[in-house]
Protein backbone atom coordinates (compact mmCIF):
# COMPACT_ATOMS: atom_id res chain seq x y z
CA UNK A 1 0.00 0.00 0.00
CA UNK A 2 1.17 3.53 -0.76
CA UNK A 3 0.20 6.22 1.73
CA UNK A 4 0.46 10.01 1.67
CA UNK A 5 0.57 12.03 4.87
CA UNK A 6 -0.52 15.66 4.77
CA UNK A 7 0.65 18.34 7.17
CA UNK A 8 -2.98 18.75 8.23
CA UNK A 9 -2.62 15.38 9.94
CA UNK A 10 -4.56 13.47 7.30
CA UNK A 11 -3.28 10.06 6.12
CA UNK A 12 -4.43 9.03 2.64
CA UNK A 13 -4.37 5.52 1.22
CA UNK A 14 -3.34 5.87 -2.43
CA UNK A 15 -3.80 2.20 -3.30
CA UNK A 16 -1.84 -1.00 -3.89
CA UNK A 17 1.27 -0.97 -6.04
CA UNK A 18 0.91 -3.30 -9.05
CA UNK A 19 4.30 -5.02 -8.81
CA UNK A 20 5.21 -6.99 -5.64
CA UNK A 21 4.18 -7.14 -1.99
CA UNK A 22 7.68 -6.28 -0.75
CA UNK A 23 8.60 -2.66 -1.48
CA UNK A 24 12.33 -2.19 -0.88
CA UNK A 25 12.68 1.52 -1.65
CA UNK A 26 10.62 4.63 -2.46
CA UNK A 27 12.18 7.65 -4.20
CA UNK A 28 10.26 10.81 -5.22
CA UNK A 29 10.90 13.27 -8.01
CA UNK A 30 8.77 16.21 -9.20
CA UNK A 31 6.37 14.00 -11.18
CA UNK A 32 6.43 10.49 -9.74
CA UNK A 33 7.00 8.30 -6.72
CA UNK A 34 9.28 5.47 -7.84
CA UNK A 35 9.34 2.09 -6.08
CA UNK A 36 11.63 -0.95 -6.26
CA UNK A 37 10.42 -4.39 -5.19
CA UNK A 38 11.25 -7.97 -4.18
CA UNK A 39 11.14 -10.80 -5.30
CA UNK A 40 10.79 -10.01 -9.02
CA UNK A 41 13.16 -7.00 -9.18
CA UNK A 42 10.33 -4.81 -10.46
CA UNK A 43 10.01 -1.05 -10.90
CA UNK A 44 6.71 0.77 -10.41
CA UNK A 45 5.68 4.42 -10.46
CA UNK A 46 2.88 6.50 -8.99
CA UNK A 47 1.95 9.58 -11.03
CA UNK A 48 1.32 12.46 -8.64
CA UNK A 49 -0.88 14.31 -11.17
CA UNK A 50 -3.09 11.48 -12.46
CA UNK A 51 -2.99 9.37 -9.27
CA UNK A 52 -2.24 6.29 -11.40
CA UNK A 53 0.16 3.41 -10.78
CA UNK A 54 2.24 1.85 -13.52
CA UNK A 55 4.18 -1.42 -13.41
CA UNK A 56 7.40 -1.07 -15.44
CA UNK A 57 8.14 -4.79 -15.14
CA UNK A 58 11.19 -6.78 -14.11
CA UNK A 59 14.31 -4.67 -14.55
CA UNK A 60 16.85 -7.52 -14.80
CA UNK A 61 15.74 -11.13 -15.31
CA UNK A 62 17.19 -13.49 -12.72
CA UNK A 63 17.59 -10.76 -10.09
CA UNK A 64 15.37 -10.60 -7.00
CA UNK A 65 15.90 -7.16 -5.47
CA UNK A 66 15.54 -3.67 -6.99
CA UNK A 67 17.09 -1.59 -4.22
CA UNK A 68 18.55 1.71 -5.46
CA UNK A 69 16.76 4.38 -7.52
CA UNK A 70 18.02 7.81 -8.65
CA UNK A 71 16.57 10.19 -11.27
CA UNK A 72 19.10 11.65 -13.74
CA UNK A 73 17.47 13.71 -16.47
CA UNK A 74 15.47 11.46 -18.78
CA UNK A 75 16.87 8.35 -17.12
CA UNK A 76 16.58 6.40 -13.92
CA UNK A 77 19.66 4.75 -12.46
CA UNK A 78 18.65 1.45 -10.84
CA UNK A 79 20.70 -0.93 -8.69
CA UNK A 80 20.07 -4.56 -7.81
CA UNK A 81 20.96 -7.61 -5.72
CA UNK A 82 21.81 -10.32 -4.88
CA UNK A 83 24.21 -9.79 -7.78
CA UNK A 84 25.44 -6.19 -7.88
CA UNK A 85 24.42 -4.47 -11.09
CA UNK A 86 23.66 -0.90 -12.16
CA UNK A 87 21.18 -0.17 -14.93
CA UNK A 88 20.29 3.01 -16.84
CA UNK A 89 16.58 3.08 -17.76
CA UNK A 90 15.28 5.58 -20.33
CA UNK A 91 11.90 6.90 -19.20
CA UNK A 92 10.49 7.60 -22.68
CA UNK A 93 11.78 4.61 -24.67
CA UNK A 94 12.08 2.08 -21.79
CA UNK A 95 15.50 1.15 -23.19
CA UNK A 96 17.82 -0.43 -20.62
CA UNK A 97 21.61 -0.31 -20.50
CA UNK A 98 23.84 -2.09 -18.00
CA UNK A 99 26.65 0.12 -16.67
CA UNK A 100 29.97 -1.28 -15.47
CA UNK A 101 31.06 -0.15 -12.00
CA UNK A 102 34.67 -0.77 -11.08
CA UNK A 103 35.06 -3.13 -8.05
CA UNK A 104 31.29 -3.73 -7.82
CA UNK A 105 29.58 -5.01 -10.97
CA UNK A 106 28.58 -8.68 -11.02
CA UNK A 107 29.89 -9.42 -7.52
CA UNK A 108 27.57 -11.00 -4.93
CA UNK A 109 25.60 -8.80 -2.54
CA UNK A 110 23.57 -5.61 -2.81
CA UNK A 111 23.83 -2.11 -4.21
CA UNK A 112 21.47 -0.67 -1.61
CA UNK A 113 20.98 3.02 -2.34
CA UNK A 114 21.97 5.59 -4.97
CA UNK A 115 22.49 9.33 -4.60
CA UNK A 116 23.41 11.89 -7.26
CA UNK A 117 25.14 15.01 -5.95
CA UNK A 118 26.79 17.49 -8.30
CA UNK A 119 28.64 15.40 -10.92
CA UNK A 120 29.06 12.32 -8.75
CA UNK A 121 27.13 9.12 -8.23
CA UNK A 122 27.26 7.70 -4.70
CA UNK A 123 26.60 3.95 -4.53
CA UNK A 124 25.98 2.22 -1.18
CA UNK A 125 27.18 -1.39 -1.18
CA UNK A 126 26.11 -3.95 1.45
CA UNK A 127 24.93 -1.14 3.77
CA UNK A 128 28.40 -0.13 4.98
CA UNK A 129 30.58 0.74 1.95
CA UNK A 130 30.18 3.87 -0.16
CA UNK A 131 31.65 4.08 -3.66
CA UNK A 132 31.91 7.43 -5.47
CA UNK A 133 31.86 7.51 -9.29
CA UNK A 134 32.16 10.30 -11.83
CA UNK A 135 28.67 10.56 -13.31
CA UNK A 136 29.94 11.21 -16.84
CA UNK A 137 32.59 8.49 -17.11
CA UNK A 138 31.51 6.10 -14.30
CA UNK A 139 35.13 5.95 -13.20
CA UNK A 140 35.75 5.24 -9.51
CA UNK A 141 36.78 8.38 -7.65
CA UNK A 142 36.85 7.29 -3.98
CA UNK A 143 35.36 4.88 -1.44
CA UNK A 144 34.71 5.03 2.30
CA UNK A 145 32.81 3.20 5.05
CA UNK A 146 29.59 4.60 6.47
CA UNK A 147 26.42 3.59 8.34
CA UNK A 148 23.64 3.05 5.82
CA UNK A 149 22.25 6.56 5.12
CA UNK A 150 23.89 9.74 3.88
CA UNK A 151 23.01 13.35 4.66
CA UNK A 152 23.21 15.23 1.39
CA UNK A 153 24.64 18.67 2.25
CA UNK A 154 26.05 20.75 5.07
CA UNK A 155 24.01 24.01 5.46
CA UNK A 156 27.13 26.19 5.50
CA UNK A 157 29.10 24.28 2.85
CA UNK A 158 26.97 22.69 0.07
CA UNK A 159 30.01 20.74 -1.16
CA UNK A 160 30.35 18.88 2.16
CA UNK A 161 28.24 15.70 2.44
CA UNK A 162 27.85 14.42 5.99
CA UNK A 163 27.56 10.79 7.08
CA UNK A 164 27.76 8.63 10.19
CA UNK A 165 30.66 6.20 10.56
CA UNK A 166 30.44 4.17 13.77
CA UNK A 167 30.65 6.66 16.66
CA UNK A 168 31.97 9.42 14.37
CA UNK A 169 30.44 12.09 12.14
CA UNK A 170 32.39 12.57 8.94
CA UNK A 171 32.03 14.47 5.69
CA UNK A 172 32.99 13.86 2.08
CA UNK A 173 34.04 17.05 0.31
CA UNK A 174 33.17 17.33 -3.38
CA UNK A 175 35.90 19.86 -4.10
CA UNK A 176 38.63 17.88 -2.31
CA UNK A 177 37.37 14.42 -3.34
CA UNK A 178 37.95 12.97 0.12
CA UNK A 179 36.67 12.51 3.66
CA UNK A 180 37.12 14.76 6.68
CA UNK A 181 36.25 14.08 10.34
CA UNK A 182 33.71 16.40 11.97
CA UNK A 183 33.21 14.58 15.31
CA UNK A 184 35.52 11.71 16.29
CA UNK A 185 33.27 10.04 18.87
CA UNK A 186 30.05 10.34 20.82
CA UNK A 187 27.43 9.10 18.35
CA UNK A 188 25.47 5.90 19.08
CA UNK A 189 26.61 2.73 17.34
CA UNK A 190 24.49 0.91 14.79
CA UNK A 191 23.28 1.58 11.28
CA UNK A 192 21.24 4.72 10.64
CA UNK A 193 17.56 4.31 9.89
CA UNK A 194 16.97 8.08 9.58
CA UNK A 195 19.31 11.04 9.18
CA UNK A 196 17.94 14.54 8.62
CA UNK A 197 18.43 18.26 9.30
CA UNK A 198 15.88 19.62 11.80
CA UNK A 199 15.22 22.86 13.64
CA UNK A 200 15.36 22.41 17.41
CA UNK A 201 15.03 25.35 19.82
CA UNK A 202 15.52 27.60 16.82
CA UNK A 203 18.89 26.09 15.85
CA UNK A 204 20.04 23.70 13.14
CA UNK A 205 20.59 20.12 14.32
CA UNK A 206 21.35 16.81 12.68
CA UNK A 207 18.85 14.26 13.95
CA UNK A 208 19.60 10.56 13.61
CA UNK A 209 17.99 7.30 14.69
CA UNK A 210 19.78 3.94 14.63
CA UNK A 211 18.53 0.42 14.01
CA UNK A 212 18.84 -0.12 17.79
CA UNK A 213 16.28 2.66 18.55
CA UNK A 214 18.91 5.08 19.80
CA UNK A 215 18.59 8.73 18.78
CA UNK A 216 21.05 11.61 18.77
CA UNK A 217 20.90 15.35 18.08
CA UNK A 218 24.01 17.19 16.90
CA UNK A 219 23.88 20.98 17.26
CA UNK A 220 25.54 22.68 14.31
CA UNK A 221 26.80 25.72 16.20
CA UNK A 222 29.09 23.85 18.61
CA UNK A 223 28.75 20.17 17.51
CA UNK A 224 27.35 19.22 20.90
CA UNK A 225 25.81 15.71 20.88
CA UNK A 226 22.81 14.74 23.00
CA UNK A 227 21.13 11.38 22.77
CA UNK A 228 19.05 8.68 24.38
CA UNK A 229 17.33 5.40 23.72
CA UNK A 230 13.84 5.96 22.38
CA UNK A 231 11.12 5.09 24.88
CA UNK A 232 9.26 2.66 22.65
CA UNK A 233 7.00 0.00 24.13
CA UNK A 234 8.45 -3.48 23.41
CA UNK A 235 6.56 -5.50 20.84
CA UNK A 236 6.21 -9.30 20.59
CA UNK A 237 8.41 -11.05 18.05
CA UNK A 238 7.99 -14.14 15.93
CA UNK A 239 10.10 -17.00 17.26
CA UNK A 240 12.88 -18.35 15.07
CA UNK A 241 14.71 -20.79 17.37
CA UNK A 242 13.94 -22.88 20.48
CA UNK A 243 16.33 -25.18 22.34
CA UNK A 244 16.30 -26.88 25.74
CA UNK A 245 19.63 -26.86 27.60
CA UNK A 246 20.80 -29.85 29.68
CA UNK A 247 19.68 -28.04 32.87
CA UNK A 248 16.14 -27.73 31.55
CA UNK A 249 16.20 -24.06 30.59
CA UNK A 250 14.57 -23.05 27.31
CA UNK A 251 16.45 -20.56 25.11
CA UNK A 252 14.19 -18.64 22.73
CA UNK A 253 15.46 -16.63 19.74
CA UNK A 254 13.45 -13.92 18.00
CA UNK A 255 13.04 -12.77 14.41
CA UNK A 256 14.90 -10.50 13.49
CA UNK A 257 16.54 -10.17 16.89
CA UNK A 258 16.12 -10.91 20.58
CA UNK A 259 17.05 -13.78 22.91
CA UNK A 260 15.35 -14.94 26.12
CA UNK A 261 16.04 -17.56 28.74
CA UNK A 262 12.86 -19.19 30.03
CA UNK A 263 12.50 -21.31 33.17
CA UNK A 264 9.72 -23.87 32.42
CA UNK A 265 9.46 -25.17 36.00
CA UNK A 266 8.83 -21.66 37.34
CA UNK A 267 6.96 -20.42 34.28
CA UNK A 268 9.18 -17.33 34.19
CA UNK A 269 11.40 -15.51 31.73
CA UNK A 270 14.75 -15.17 33.53
CA UNK A 271 16.20 -12.61 31.13
CA UNK A 272 15.79 -11.05 27.71
CA UNK A 273 18.35 -9.35 25.47
CA UNK A 274 16.24 -7.29 23.10
CA UNK A 275 19.07 -6.45 20.70
CA UNK A 276 20.69 -9.89 20.51
CA UNK A 277 21.11 -10.80 16.83
CA UNK A 278 18.80 -13.30 15.14
CA UNK A 279 19.82 -16.79 16.26
CA UNK A 280 19.69 -19.50 13.60
CA UNK A 281 21.34 -22.35 15.54
CA UNK A 282 22.19 -23.29 19.14
CA UNK A 283 24.10 -26.02 20.92
CA UNK A 284 25.34 -26.77 24.45
CA UNK A 285 28.76 -27.94 25.62
CA UNK A 286 30.76 -28.01 28.87
CA UNK A 287 28.18 -25.89 30.70
CA UNK A 288 28.05 -23.18 28.05
CA UNK A 289 25.41 -22.17 25.50
CA UNK A 290 26.58 -21.44 21.94
CA UNK A 291 24.60 -19.28 19.52
CA UNK A 292 25.08 -19.00 15.74
CA UNK A 293 23.62 -15.72 14.52
CA UNK A 294 22.56 -13.90 11.35
CA UNK A 295 23.81 -11.73 9.66
CA UNK A 296 27.35 -12.67 8.57
CA UNK A 297 27.55 -15.82 10.73
CA UNK A 298 28.75 -14.61 14.12
CA UNK A 299 29.19 -16.98 17.09
CA UNK A 300 28.52 -16.19 20.76
CA UNK A 301 29.04 -18.16 23.98
CA UNK A 302 26.96 -17.72 27.13
CA UNK A 303 28.11 -18.84 30.60
CA UNK A 304 25.03 -19.30 32.86
CA UNK A 305 27.24 -19.23 35.98
CA UNK A 306 28.35 -15.65 35.27
CA UNK A 307 26.32 -12.40 35.36
CA UNK A 308 24.48 -11.44 32.18
CA UNK A 309 26.11 -8.55 30.33
CA UNK A 310 25.73 -8.14 26.58
CA UNK A 311 27.70 -5.51 24.64
CA UNK A 312 28.42 -7.38 21.36
CA UNK A 313 32.09 -7.86 22.36
CA UNK A 314 34.50 -10.55 23.55
CA UNK A 315 34.14 -9.05 27.04
CA UNK A 316 30.41 -9.62 27.36
CA UNK A 317 28.27 -12.54 28.49
CA UNK A 318 27.03 -13.74 25.97
CA UNK A 319 30.56 -13.29 24.68
CA UNK A 320 31.40 -12.82 21.00
CA UNK A 321 33.85 -15.59 20.03
CA UNK A 322 34.26 -15.05 16.32
CA UNK A 323 32.86 -14.74 12.83
CA UNK A 324 32.68 -17.62 10.38
CA UNK A 325 34.72 -16.51 7.38
CA UNK A 326 34.43 -17.00 3.61
CA UNK A 327 31.21 -14.98 3.06
CA UNK A 328 28.98 -17.06 5.34
CA UNK A 329 25.67 -15.79 6.70
CA UNK A 330 23.44 -18.29 8.54
CA UNK A 331 24.69 -20.97 10.98
CA UNK A 332 21.51 -23.06 10.97
CA UNK A 333 23.08 -26.28 12.27
CA UNK A 334 25.35 -26.71 15.32
CA UNK A 335 26.60 -29.65 17.38
CA UNK A 336 29.33 -30.17 19.97
CA UNK A 337 31.44 -32.91 21.58
CA UNK A 338 34.93 -33.68 22.95
CA UNK A 339 35.96 -30.03 23.37
CA UNK A 340 34.75 -28.87 19.95
CA UNK A 341 31.74 -26.86 18.77
CA UNK A 342 30.79 -27.31 15.11
CA UNK A 343 28.69 -24.99 12.95
CA UNK A 344 27.40 -25.55 9.42
CA UNK A 345 26.34 -22.58 7.35
CA UNK A 346 24.37 -21.17 4.44
CA UNK A 347 26.45 -18.52 2.62
CA UNK A 348 25.72 -14.83 2.07
CA UNK A 349 23.18 -13.45 -0.43
CA UNK A 350 24.09 -14.25 -4.03
CA UNK A 351 26.84 -16.70 -2.96
CA UNK A 352 27.26 -20.47 -3.22
CA UNK A 353 29.07 -22.84 -0.87
CA UNK A 354 28.57 -23.22 2.87
CA UNK A 355 31.30 -23.85 5.42
CA UNK A 356 32.13 -26.03 8.41
CA UNK A 357 33.35 -23.93 11.35
CA UNK A 358 35.18 -25.56 14.28
CA UNK A 359 35.58 -23.82 17.65
CA UNK A 360 38.23 -25.46 19.86
CA UNK A 361 37.19 -24.85 23.47
CA UNK A 362 40.68 -25.66 24.80
CA UNK A 363 42.66 -23.28 22.59
CA UNK A 364 39.70 -20.90 22.06
CA UNK A 365 40.37 -20.72 18.34
CA UNK A 366 37.90 -20.71 15.45
CA UNK A 367 38.74 -22.36 12.14
CA UNK A 368 36.59 -22.24 9.00
CA UNK A 369 36.62 -24.86 6.22
CA UNK A 370 34.72 -23.63 3.12
CA UNK A 371 33.30 -25.65 0.22
CA UNK A 372 33.25 -28.97 2.07
CA UNK A 373 30.66 -30.03 -0.52
CA UNK A 374 31.36 -27.85 -3.54
CA UNK A 375 28.84 -25.00 -3.93
CA UNK A 376 26.40 -26.62 -1.47
CA UNK A 377 25.27 -25.35 1.93
CA UNK A 378 25.45 -27.34 5.18
CA UNK A 379 22.10 -27.96 6.91
CA UNK A 380 22.81 -30.92 9.20
CA UNK A 381 25.61 -31.90 11.61
CA UNK A 382 26.15 -34.65 14.15
CA UNK A 383 29.21 -36.08 15.90
CA UNK A 384 30.25 -39.75 16.13
CA UNK A 385 33.51 -41.28 17.39
CA UNK A 386 35.89 -38.48 16.31
CA UNK A 387 34.03 -37.68 13.08
CA UNK A 388 31.47 -35.07 12.09
CA UNK A 389 28.76 -36.14 9.66
CA UNK A 390 27.23 -33.30 7.67
CA UNK A 391 24.26 -33.00 5.32
CA UNK A 392 24.24 -30.59 2.39
CA UNK A 393 21.72 -28.54 0.42
CA UNK A 394 21.70 -27.41 -3.21
CA UNK A 395 20.32 -24.00 -2.18
CA UNK A 396 22.91 -21.30 -1.51
CA UNK A 397 22.47 -17.73 -0.29
CA UNK A 398 19.21 -15.92 -1.00
CA UNK A 399 18.88 -14.47 -4.49
CA UNK A 400 20.43 -17.54 -6.17
CA UNK A 401 18.85 -20.44 -8.04
CA UNK A 402 19.83 -23.86 -6.67
CA UNK A 403 22.86 -25.70 -8.03
CA UNK A 404 22.58 -29.16 -9.56
CA UNK A 405 21.91 -32.00 -7.13
CA UNK A 406 21.92 -34.32 -5.48
CA UNK A 407 22.56 -33.26 -1.91
CA UNK A 408 25.17 -35.33 -0.08
CA UNK A 409 26.45 -36.45 3.28
CA UNK A 410 30.11 -35.83 4.14
CA UNK A 411 32.37 -37.28 6.83
CA UNK A 412 34.92 -34.99 8.50
CA UNK A 413 37.93 -36.27 10.47
CA UNK A 414 38.14 -33.79 13.38
CA UNK A 415 41.69 -34.60 14.51
CA UNK A 416 43.19 -34.54 11.00
CA UNK A 417 40.99 -31.60 9.87
CA UNK A 418 39.92 -33.10 6.56
CA UNK A 419 37.02 -34.68 4.73
CA UNK A 420 37.34 -38.44 4.45
CA UNK A 421 34.19 -39.33 2.53
CA UNK A 422 31.09 -38.01 0.84
CA UNK A 423 28.11 -40.02 -0.40
CA UNK A 424 24.50 -39.81 -1.49
CA UNK A 425 22.37 -41.92 0.87
CA UNK A 426 20.77 -44.81 -1.01
CA UNK A 427 17.18 -44.45 0.14
CA UNK A 428 14.82 -47.02 -1.44
CA UNK A 429 11.43 -46.02 -2.83
CA UNK A 430 12.21 -42.29 -2.90
CA UNK A 431 10.21 -40.26 -5.40
CA UNK A 432 13.22 -38.06 -6.30
CA UNK A 433 16.87 -37.47 -5.42
CA UNK A 434 17.62 -35.59 -2.18
CA UNK A 435 18.20 -31.84 -2.45
CA UNK A 436 18.52 -30.72 1.20
CA UNK A 437 19.73 -33.24 3.78
CA UNK A 438 19.40 -32.01 7.33
CA UNK A 439 19.12 -32.20 10.20
CA UNK A 440 21.27 -35.19 11.19
CA UNK A 441 21.20 -36.76 14.66
CA UNK A 442 22.91 -39.70 16.37
CA UNK A 443 20.10 -41.89 17.65
CA UNK A 444 19.92 -44.08 20.79
CA UNK A 445 20.15 -47.10 18.46
CA UNK A 446 23.66 -46.09 17.33
CA UNK A 447 22.47 -45.12 13.85
CA UNK A 448 22.72 -41.65 12.38
CA UNK A 449 19.26 -40.37 11.52
CA UNK A 450 18.64 -37.85 8.78
CA UNK A 451 15.76 -36.00 7.15
CA UNK A 452 15.13 -34.65 3.67
CA UNK A 453 11.82 -32.82 3.26
CA UNK A 454 9.22 -35.59 3.82
CA UNK A 455 11.61 -38.54 4.20
CA UNK A 456 13.26 -39.91 7.37
CA UNK A 457 16.17 -42.34 7.15
CA UNK A 458 18.87 -43.90 9.33
CA UNK A 459 22.30 -45.17 8.28
CA UNK A 460 25.20 -47.06 9.81
CA UNK A 461 28.02 -44.57 10.59
CA UNK A 462 30.70 -47.16 9.79
CA UNK A 463 29.39 -48.56 6.50
CA UNK A 464 27.29 -45.52 5.44
CA UNK A 465 24.54 -47.93 4.39
CA UNK A 466 20.91 -46.88 4.92
CA UNK A 467 19.38 -49.35 7.40
CA UNK A 468 15.82 -48.04 7.50
CA UNK A 469 13.81 -45.26 5.91
CA UNK A 470 10.29 -44.05 5.28
CA UNK A 471 8.88 -41.43 2.91
CA UNK A 472 6.16 -40.01 5.16
CA UNK A 473 5.22 -37.19 2.76
CA UNK A 474 5.89 -36.82 -0.98
CA UNK A 475 8.99 -34.73 -1.70
CA UNK A 476 7.88 -31.22 -2.66
CA UNK A 477 10.32 -28.63 -1.16
CA UNK A 478 7.40 -26.21 -0.90
CA UNK A 479 8.58 -24.18 2.08
CA UNK A 480 11.88 -22.89 3.48
CA UNK A 481 14.91 -23.92 1.43
CA UNK A 482 17.28 -23.06 4.29
CA UNK A 483 15.83 -24.09 7.64
CA UNK A 484 16.59 -27.76 8.47
CA UNK A 485 14.02 -30.47 9.20
CA UNK A 486 14.43 -30.81 12.96
CA UNK A 487 14.99 -34.11 14.78
CA UNK A 488 14.44 -34.40 18.55
CA UNK A 489 14.56 -37.50 20.73
CA UNK A 490 11.89 -37.74 23.44
CA UNK A 491 12.47 -39.33 26.85
CA UNK A 492 9.50 -41.60 26.00
CA UNK A 493 11.51 -43.34 23.27
CA UNK A 494 9.85 -41.50 20.38
CA UNK A 495 11.46 -39.35 17.73
CA UNK A 496 9.85 -35.97 17.01
CA UNK A 497 10.48 -34.22 13.71
CA UNK A 498 9.19 -31.57 11.31
CA UNK A 499 9.04 -33.75 8.19
CA UNK A 500 7.22 -31.97 5.37
CA UNK A 501 7.19 -28.88 7.64
CA UNK A 502 4.61 -30.60 9.84
CA UNK A 503 5.05 -31.67 13.47
Short descriptors:
43 strands; 8-stranded antiparallel sheet; 503 residues; mainly beta; 7-stranded antiparallel sheet; single chain
Overall shape: it is: globular
Q: Which strand-content bin applies to the residues? A: over 45%
Work out the number of β strands: 43
Radius of gyration, Cα only, in angstroms?
25 Å
What is the SS-derived class? mainly beta
Sheet bearing the most strands, described?
8 strands, antiparallel
| Overall average pLDDT | 95
Uncertain stretches: none
Tally of alpha and pi helices = 0
Cα distance, first to last residue?
35 Å
Which range best describes the helical content: under 10%, 10-25%, 25-40%, 40-55%, 55-70% or over 70%?
under 10%
At a glance:
The protein is built from no helices and 43 strands. The chain has 503 residues and is mostly beta strands. The relative contact order is 0.05.
Please explain how this structure is put together.
It is a single chain. The chain is mainly beta and 503 residues long. The chain is 0% helix and 54% strand. It has no helices and 43 strands. Strands 7, 8, 9, 10, 11, 12, 13 and 14 form an eight-stranded antiparallel β-sheet that branches. The chain has a seven-stranded antiparallel β-sheet with strand order 23-24-25-26-27-28-29, with no helix packed on it. β34 (377-384) and β35 form a beta hairpin. The radius of gyration is 25 Å and the shape is globular. 35% of the residues are buried.
